[in-house]
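Here's what a typical entry looks like (GS catalytic domain-containing protein):
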Amino acid sequence: MGAASEFAVTYTAEVSGPRYTSVDDLRLEERGIKYVRVQYVDYGNTVRFRVLPVSYFKRVCKVARPSLIISPFALAFVGIRFAGGFRRTDDCLHVIDLNSFRICTYAPGHAVVMTWFQEKKVVDEARAKTGLTFLVGFESEFLLLRKASLPPELVNDAGWGCSLGYRTGAVESAVLDEIVDCIEGAGVEAHYIHGEAAPAQYELVTGPMSPLEAADALVFTRETIYNIAHKHGLRATFAPRLLSESIGSGAHMHLSLHSSAPVAKPDTRLDAALAPELTPTERSFLQTLVEHIASLSAITQPTNASYGRVEDGIFSGGTYACWGWHNKDAPREAGLKGVLSGAELKTGNCAKPAAQMSEEERRAVGLENPRRFPRTVSDARQMLDKDTYLKETLGDEFVGVYLGLLEEHMTLPTEEATITRLIETF
């Protein structure tokens, strides 16, 4: 949002055509590729794929609609069972997206493509109806473990940016270097990697891309981190919080909004004074976030451990639905609904965490009755189930199956079993 920065690298959200128009453009044999992983991520955050020899993959990609046949139940495995909620029992197409192709730099001889289960609805609708395009970048925080025991055995006790966590000859240093090499070698821009605040915790920041490409790159980044750690005898985990005495790991998304529509001046909309730095479109976009972001908690914070990670005052996003320019305890997201309806922004910039603001300070920015994030998994699921806009946007079937899967997959009888499942899943 807003004008280009004078002190940071500037990216533009350009709408480009397909990089690959046919399987021949991939130059598989020339690149030494013997196997292709046809991959997707299910509702439980498990990466699943089928490995095709190059010869058969090329045959599949020569048909009119390159795809494999798959049951929609493949999205909702819970062990050897399925979560309830599906209304369809017919097979569907697992459509190959050639433009997601990347060489698996962490697995010699392998490449990977992502697949479609449904259409690119939201991004295409935003561009067609409002002239909006987006850029998305991610921060991936993870722990490196020697053993997935209870308590987990960490590779070191280093803290934020400490050189202790990157010693020459240490196994974790070799892992981190190889992760960056593999990410860069696959065409994903790595901005930096460094030690995060918790012991043995690291953060890899990757560059902005279009939303779909960024999501694919995030999956690739995580698979790279998992595989390189495993190669060196370690275990990487993105679990939200394993140790009660330490902070957790986040997956922070940075989203920028780019509009092709001209900005009318002067800005006469009533909410201009609340955020004069933002255009009317950006303010409408932001307002939809403030209205609905708490209801997304069932998706963005799907486990009990997630609520142990997100608290007020620890730079984890906080528990208030608000926004702020330089306030890390003010989460910001966005929505197409507000742009289409011209929604006016109702709250101003929270210059400090809402939890630390007085009643007078909250009143000054229109935050007299702030919406709070749910504090338990059960409350989050109820909030999502009651949000008609999100259910319509995401689809009733997805919401029902997703909530059912989490209920079965992450409900365990003991702390030890829960930690083990968190490490296995994340």
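Residues 152 and 355 are 32 Å apart (CA to CA).

More examples are in the samples folder.
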